[in-house]
Design brief:
By secondary structure, this protein is mainly α. It is built from 15 helices and no strands.
């Protein structure tokens, strides 16, 4: 798919169809992001194509490309301003009507904020993004890959919100998104099966019960993501698995065998997530995890000394 869009870009630019050529390039970069290509390279590519869109005055994908670049820069830690969920939540229509370009700007914008809410553990931003995605019509957004990512992150966000706020409606929405993606996988192929596995593991984890089967479910999802080349999803799975372990540890005695088991798993999942995020180029997310869970990042040999 990525190669096809690269060919379409070259043909469009060489034939003078600059709009078609640049739109193909933007779409190519979207798929590169979804496939987990290095974020540093993608940031440079997005900056270049956005400059070209402005040069040729092609506004159709400019807003969407800008929102995708914003996501990449926040993940990397290269955004012009610090991550501020309150400011990010203040996002909406520019008053340009409801044309197709505005629709895609809003869709990419809300999806950007949804993903940031999940990666940076901000429940309010995730909640607002899910709500706005519900209000924004998605009937024209039938792209298989974009739909699977949106369903995945809505489910993950709602499962986390259910764990933290215990509102049944979140659990219902998470299950509905999981069912939709499972049906898509049966019809369109198993490319996103690892996302279904991750959504299912996190859904069970959000119920707050200590079950040995839940870390195993996360492990299977993480392994499936890595095996198919989706290390970015393996990183997220490791992060969510660590959050599950921490939530269980907060409700059991420190001297119990269950606490020791969860503590060991938590440290393993955290380091795995951080390593995978750094490898992808999501340095800001890795730093966020290291800062938030610094007490668990201390080397055991240092403590023993």
């Amino acid at each position: 798919m990525i190669d096809l869009y690269e060919t379409a870009h070259k043909v469009g630019m060489e034939s003078g169809d600059f709009e078609g050529g640049l739109m193909s390039q933007v779409t190519q970069y979207v798929y590169c992001f979804l496939a987990g290509h290095p974020l540093a390279d993608l940031e440079m590519k997005y900056l270049s194509v956005i400059n070209k869109l402005r040069l040729y005055n092609i506004k159709f994908f400019l807003g969407g490309a800008g929102e995708q670049l914003l996501l990449i820069q926040y993940l990397r830690g290269t955004a012009e301003r610090d991550f501020d969920p309150t400011l990010l939540a203040d996002f909406g229509s520019e008053g340009t009507g409801h044309d197709v370009s505005e629709h895609f700007r809003l869709m990419f914008g809300y999806c950007t904020r949804l993903q940031l809410g999940v990666y940076f553990n901000d429940d309010d931003l995730a909640h607002q993004s899910v709500k706005r995605l519900d209000l924004e019509s998605t009937s024209s957004d039938t792209s298989f890959d974009l739909l699977t990512v949106r369903l995945c992150f809505i489910s993950l966000a709602c499962s986390t919100l259910y764990r933290n706020r215990r509102k049944r409606s979140y659990l219902t929405k998470s299950k509905r998104c999981l069912g939709q993606l499972q049906r898509i996988c049966r019809i369109r192929g198993a490319e996103s099966l690892h996302r279904c596995m991750l959504m299912e593991a996190h859904l069970e984890a959000a119920k707050g019960k200590y079950l040995p089967s839940i870390p195993l479910a996360f492990d299977r999802a993480i392994e499936a993501a890595s095996r198919t080349g989706y290390d970015r999803d393996a990183a997220l799975g490791s992060q969510l698995a660590a959050e599950y372990c921490l939530s269980i540890m907060q409700g059991i005695q420190k001297d119990s065998i269950h606490f020791t088991t969860m503590d060991t798993l938590l440290r393993r999942y955290l380091q795995q997530a951080i390593d995978l995020y750094k490898s992808w180029g999501a340095i800001a997310v890795a730093d966020h995890l290291e800062n938030k869970h610094s007490i668990f990042m201390i080397d055991a040999t240092v403590v023993d000394a």
